[in-house]
Design goal:
Chain A: Its main location: membrane. The complex is a heterotrimer of chains A (about 350), B (about 600) and C (about 350). With about 600 residues, chain B is α/β, with parallel strands linked by helices. Chain B is built from 16 helices and 23 strands. Classes of the chains: A mainly alpha (about 350), B alpha/beta (about 600), C alpha/beta (about 350).
């Protein structure tokens, strides 16, 4: 027997909904076998990964803390991805956003306004958008591949951050450690749920989700962006400007990533330091695709992804699972999802071996 | 005799000496009863689509056998199975009386089956010799000698040192055939070989094929053009919806019965072309339009002059790849001219050369492009979303938001009004058959009530009845005052609906020819770049441009392009009162009237 | 107010979790020790020595170890250390300076938890920074390096330009100058504790500049050592021996053995006598040691090295003794003056002889 993939007449909604579930099940099954082979109590390890993020209020609040930046960045990226504009450098835009936001408390350490954070968020968005605009400029002017440009700009952003932390912005009282001084209270995002680290950035993520939904599913501009991505010639035919799509995609995703960076330094960190992002810029790419590039799907996938991170960390604490095993679970999940997602548009047909 | 087509000194009628047969000793005995190729009950399906169902086919040695059918009838799939590209789901293939399993083209080649594809498999950046050497073993010197010998024997002369990118389509086809012949085939499959040729070159190809047949090579000739088949073939197998609907000897079967086998019923009666109404105002004017193509292998547009008025349909004939897609993009606004040249295109009196597609649409232009999927429609989107693509101005949006209900209604109207067979406005465009999607796109653009309608290949891939309906709609539009420009490769169609014709060849537009007073032969002359019947091209005649319409393939024949002399009056053929009944096929000129649509 | 509330929530969540997951129920009495490090625990290196020391301490006081590896510094680290404490850990060892702020918050929230924090500078009643006097060992390595270098150029691949590492380089150069006053040292900062690719590149760059003895300064991988071996130049590293990665050209190791210190601190925690203090530990504390010397060192130099080592252990000699001039030629420590411990722990300048300027 051989099999082949046959394109479905139309995307299967059932499959689109089932794909994440199937991926979760398959990843769970394979990890279970893997853990068992490693001699780790597999059931407990998986239980820890899957259940502990939701088992206590504290854990769930930490899931939300992690969801906020992922959600924000992924919603921005997904808009670009649907227009086939691949901003791979959200990590860099996040760093620049964090740097721009930090400029206020670092350069004005005595500023006492309780609303400093508002200006910081604005500056972060502008910074992230400006960083992404560099890629938009080169793409529309010289047709330079935005994947490479944004990715390379991430490396530059990381170097700028290192430079600032080792040099001009170094905490004068910090014994040469590469970090800025702790920000004053007015430069910190207000908390959202007392007693947890959940702060306003979660609301930014929710707002971004609603905005993305209206923009992509309802607005004419969003419709045009999608056309540019799905059928560039049809876009030209309908008079939609491809360059405008590139600018719009990169500015939106850059601003979202910049805001996420600003919210991180003004949120759980409270200072600018080397490890601002925990890889959010890259993880958000996965989140965006896991969510099927749909605003609602992304809201779910960012929550699932954060839960897996938290669960994985917990598994290290509770179940003596090595870090690499946690990464394997995450990798399996993504792999199985991508396989399952294939069946949204394709189905398997078994063909006989009959030959003339 | 078609004027000029084979009369040139270098056209190479194979009369030189006694050339060797392609495969010594393998010539079948005349009257041999063992079929060369036999298919029994062959079936093939792609998912839900049954491409072939229980097909029986018998090809005798030394025969030119036609496979006849409409677009989508399953001809190409059948040939792919014979050539080993696809494996049948069921059934048996016999070669010389013995069952064979054709698992790959090389396996088929070993048995002696060669295939000339509709879309050539040649590398533009290699020479003819290098392209041949990729497939045929042997030293370059010996290959070159064989190319020369075979070319002489079969009328397939090409310059072996020329780059394929510089060849005309006719020459490329010759290279493909030569390459097959060098592998000594017993069976040669030709997939719609005349689709890319002007009438004159068709005659020449037929001579070559007859010589091949006389030397024992069987030929499977795929076509949907009845006149050609009746002229050339000695057997025909007709396919419809993947099934064999009949076997016939086309030499003594009339076109009407072949048509019935092909489409399952008689053709609808032809809609008489009403004479053009009163001369309307000029709606679209091209004045000395020049455009340099960024693709070095595609033609530049030079000095194009065109006037399109309300109440008329103007056709642009010509073989694809002579600048049609470039011209359409320039008119539609998908390609913009620099501001200083903007005046070369005027839409309803306004210079629009530098304006984008959206602006021109706002001025009343609508456009049906040749490529439906991905150009005229987004396959992954639903029909109502595809309605939104160009019909936003028809009240489908509100304050920057999509009015989904209005778009659904628009799509529903289009589906109902143009008989689009689909599940409804929520169906994805990609799920519609080519013909139905074409009806949707044509319908959508007509519903925009444009002042100027640009239509490329209006009935490409559409079944006969739907094609007739589309043509009827276009004529209705014209009668209502719309200015319509139709770009098509189908001469029959242009003759049926157009008031005037131009021919585009190598990026230059012929002067206007009044349809009622010209002939397919005259148009054919313009198609190959000869302005007058007595200036027929010789060795390098043939078509131009790439095989695939709309692609930016190559073009050639620039050296011997005959410049249209716009001062030359169109030759008058007052006896042609019914141009719509005229077939384009070269050999059909004298007998084409039974091919009416 | 916030603190008490958070403490309450933390305890509540721990209780909730304990109800949901009967984890570690068997070990209520044993001391739960958590060790958090930024890099994975390889066979060798910083994380490995900390883990060895932690396990030794656990063995001595009858505790259990939860090992948290590859935890990047930032919000994740804060959460995970909090989680470990909620899960019962009462003695926490934080293996990176970047865990400082989170660790201090944790210490405030959980007064009954004792925390040791590597390389930091802040102290709280239940929060003690600790560091090793690597400079004692790197001084001796410098003496050997100068004797073996033919080019007169030595180099260091270093993690971060923090005082601890700057001091190690300075002592390395001072030791080398004690043998060859003309010697020069180049430094590449890779800004990572654990980045094999960058470390390899940096080591190759130094070798191509002519450096023929390399100092792998606080790198947690054997990359520099194995690159040096391939290129045929000497190299040494900190924390744990890596001779297996460079059988021919291994200069030696400035090792650390945390077992005595961790055991003492864990015992203090059990006894209730844990006090926040800045622990700066050296050869005299049996935390820092040198070993695995290459046999290629000339006998007379080796004798001098052994003598110097004995003087360091006895306190008769401190490498950080004037006259010390900085890179600009300014005298920073007068002749005969020994830098104080605070000065050493805050040293943010290079001595003359280091050719690379400090990143600024």
């Amino acid at each position: 027997m051989r099999f082949e993939l046959i394109r479905r007449d139309r995307a299967s909604l059932e499959m689109a909904l089932m794909a994440p579930v199937l991926a979760l099940l398959a990843a769970g099954l394979v990890s279970w076998a893997l853990f068992a082979a490693m001699g780790v109590p597999a059931g407990r390890a998986l239980w820890t990964i899957a259940a502990t993020p939701f088992s206590t209020w504290y854990d769930f609040s930490e899931v939300l803390v992690k969801t906020a930046p992922l959600l924000l960045i992924a919603q921005g990226l997904a808009i670009g991805f649907r227009a086939r504009v691949f901003n791979i450098g959200a990590e860099g835009q996040l760093l620049i956003g964090a740097i721009c936001a930090s400029a206020i408390p670092v350069l004005l350490p005595s500023a006492g306004s309780p609303l400093l954070w508002v200006a910081m968020m604005a500056l972060g968005m502008v910074g992230g958008a400006a960083w992404a605009a560099i890629a938009a400029f080169w793409r529309t002017r010289l047709n330079a591949n935005e994947i490479l440009v944004t990715l390379m700009l991430s490396l530059i952003a990381a170097q700028i951050l290192t430079y600032l932390l080792l040099g001009p912005w170094k905490d004068p009282m910090g014994m040469n450690f590469p970090q800025t001084r702790m920000f004053q209270p007015g430069a910190l995002l207000p908390g959202l749920l007392p007693g947890t680290r959940v702060n306003l950035s979660l609301l930014f993520g929710v707002a971004a989700t609603i905005a993305a939904y209206v923009f992509m599913q309802r607005s004419v501009t969003g419709f045009r962006l999608i056309v540019t991505g799905t059928a560039p010639r049809a876009a030209g035919y309908a008079g939609v400007s491809a360059a405008r799509g590139v600018w719009l995609s990169l500015l939106i995703s850059g601003a979202a990533a910049g805001l996420a960076g600003a919210a991180e330094v003004a949120g759980p960190l409270g200072q600018l330091q080397r490890s601002i992002s925990q890889g959010y810029g890259f993880a958000a790419i996965i989140v965006a695709y896991l969510g099927g590039l749909h605003p609602v799907g992304i809201a779910v996938s960012s929550l699932v992804m954060s839960a897996i991170y938290i669960g994985g960390d917990n598994a290290m604490v509770f179940a003596d699972l090595p870090q690499s095993a946690v990464l394997v679970v995450q990798g399996l999940l993504l792999t199985f999802y991508l396989i399952a997602a294939t069946f949204v548009r394709y189905r398997i047909a078994w063909t006989g071996t009959a030959r003339a | 005799m078609t004027p000029g087509a084979t009369s040139g000194p270098a056209s190479g009628q194979p009369e030189a000496g006694h050339p060797e047969p392609p495969r010594q000793g393998s010539q079948p005995e005349p009257g041999c009863d063992v079929p060369l190729l036999r298919l029994r009950g062959v079936s093939k399906s792609y998912g839900a689509v049954q491409a072939n169902r229980g097909v029986d086919l018998t090809v005798m040695p030394g025969s030119i056998h036609a496979i006849l059918g409409e677009n989508g009838a399953g001809k190409s799939t059948l040939m792919k199975m014979i050539y080993g590209v696809e494996a049948p789901d069921a059934g048996q293939i016999e070669w010389n009386g013995a069952p064979v399993a054709l698992t790959s083209p090389s396996e088929a080649g070993r048995l002696g089956i060669g295939m000339v594809f509709q879309h050539f498999s040649l590398f533009d950046t290699l020479t003819v010799l290098e392209n041949v050497a990729l497939v045929v073993p042997g030293s370059p010197r010996r290959l070159a000698a064989r190319i020369a010998t075979l070319g002489r024997d079969y009328g397939l002369q090409v310059d072996a040192t020329e780059y394929v990118g510089a060849l005309s389509v006719g020459e490329r086809q010759r290279v493909e055939i030569l390459r097959c012949l060098m592998q000594d085939p017993r069976l040669l499959i030709l997939d719609e070989p005349t689709a890319v040729l002007p009438p004159q070159m068709v005659t020449r190809l037929f001579s070559t094929l007859r010589v091949l047949r006389d030397r024992g090579v069987s030929i499977l000739f795929i076509s949907h053009k009845l006149d050609e088949i009746r002229e050339l073939c000695d057997a025909a197998t007709v396919l419809r919806d993947g099934q064999v609907t009949g076997h016939a000897d086309p030499r003594d079967t009339d076109t009407r019965s072949l048509t019935r086998m092909m489409i399952g019923r008689d053709l609808p009666p032809a809609l008489p072309a009403e004479p053009g109404g009163a001369e309307g105002a000029v709606q679209l004017q091209l004045s000395q339009l020049d455009w340099t193509n960024p693709d070095p292998y595609a033609p530049d547009l030079r000095g194009i002059d065109l006037k399109l008025r309300g109440h008329e349909i103007v056709g642009i004939a010509g073989i694809s790849g002579n600048g049609q897609s470039e011209l359409c993009a320039l008119i539609s606004g998908e390609t913009r001219l620099p501001t200083r040249a903007a005046g070369a295109i005027a839409l309803r009196g306004q210079s629009v050369g530098a304006m984008g597609a959206a602006g021109r649409r706002a001025l009343g232009l609508a456009y049906v492009p040749e490529e439906r999927l991905g150009h005229g429609a987004v396959p992954e989107m639903t029909l109502w979303q595809n309605a939104l693509l160009t019909a936003q101005s028809r009240g489908l949006t509100r304050r920057g938001m999509v009015d989904r209900r209005a778009a659904l209604r628009f799509a529903q109207d289009c589906i109902a009004g143009f008989d689009v067979r689909t599940a409804g406005p929520e169906a994805e465009a990609g799920s519609l058959s080519g013909g139905n999607l074409q009806k949707f796109v044509v319908g959508r653009e007509i519903m925009l009530a444009p002042s100027v309608l640009l239509v490329e290949q209006p009935t490409w891939g559409v079944d006969v009845a739907a094609a007739a309906e589309i043509r009827r709609r276009l004529i209705e539009m014209r009668n209502a005052g719309c200015a319509i420009l139709v770009i098509s490769e189908e001469l029959d169609e242009l003759f049926e609906i157009c008031d005037r014709l131009h021919v585009l060849h190598d990026g230059r537009l012929s002067p206007s020819l009044v349809t009622a007073r010209t002939t397919p032969e005259e148009v054919g002359e313009w198609m190959i770049g000869a302005g007058r019947p007595d200036a027929a091209p010789a060795g390098k005649g043939g078509g131009t441009g790439p095989a695939r319409p709309g692609s930016s393939g190559t073009n050639a024949d620039r050296p011997d392009t005959a410049r249209p002399d716009s001062a030359r009056p169109a030759p008058s053929h007052p006896d042609r009162s019914d141009p719509a009944a005229e077939g384009p096929g070269a050999g059909a000129a004298s007998e084409g009237s039974d091919h009416a649509v | 107010m916030t603190h008490t509330r958070r403490a309450f929530l933390g305890t509540a969540s721990a209780a909730g979790l304990a109800a949901a997951l009967p984890l570690r129920a068997s070990a209520q009495d044993a001391l739960q020790i958590a060790l958090m490090v930024p890099s994975p625990a390889a066979d060798v290196g910083w994380s490995r020595t900390l883990l060895d020391g932690t396990e030794a301490a656990a063995g001595a006081v009858g505790g259990e170890v939860t090992f948290l590896e590859s935890i990047s510094e930032g919000p994740d680290a804060d959460r995970i250390m909090q989680r470990a404490v909620s899960n019962g850990a009462r003695f926490v060892i934080l293996g990176s300076f970047g865990y400082m702020n989170g660790g201090l918050q944790l210490a405030r929230r959980f007064p009954d938890v004792s925390i040791l924090h590597a390389s930091g500078y802040q102290t709280a009643p239940n929060f003690s920074p600790f560091a090793a006097k690597y400079y004692q060992g790197t001084y001796l390595m410098g003496m050997a390096a100068a004797a073996l270098s033919t080019s007169g150029k030595i180099g260091s691949v270093s993690a971060f330009a923090i005082p601890e590492l700057i001091t190690s380089i300075n002592a390395f150069v001072l030791g080398a100058q004690a043998v060859n006053p003309e010697i020069e040292c180049s430094v590449v900062w890779v800004n990572s504790w654990f980045d094999p690719a960058s470390e390899r590149e940096a080591a190759q760059a130094l070798i191509s500049q002519g450096c023929d003895v390399l100092f792998s300064n606080a790198q947690d991988t054997p990359s520099v050592i194995s690159v040096a071996e391939e290129a045929g130049v000497y190299a040494f590293n900190l924390n744990s021996p890596m001779k297996s990665y460079a059988p021919e050209k291994y200069l030696g190791v400035v090792g650390t053995d945390w077992a005595p210190f961790f055991t003492a601190q864990a015992q203090a925690h059990v006894d209730g006598s844990f006090e926040g203090a800045n622990h700066y530990l050296g050869m005299e504390d049996e935390v820092v040691y040198v070993s695995d010397w290459t046999p290629d060192i000339p006998a007379d130099i080796k004798t001098r090295i052994d003598q110097t080592q004995a003087e360091i252990v006895s306190g008769a000699f401190n490498p950080m003794t004037g006259p010390l001039t900085d890179q600009s030629g300014t005298v920073r420590v007068e002749d005969g003056v020994t830098m104080t411990r605070d000065e050493i722990q805050a040293m943010d300048w290079h001595v003359a002889g280091v050719t690379t300027p400090l990143p600024n």
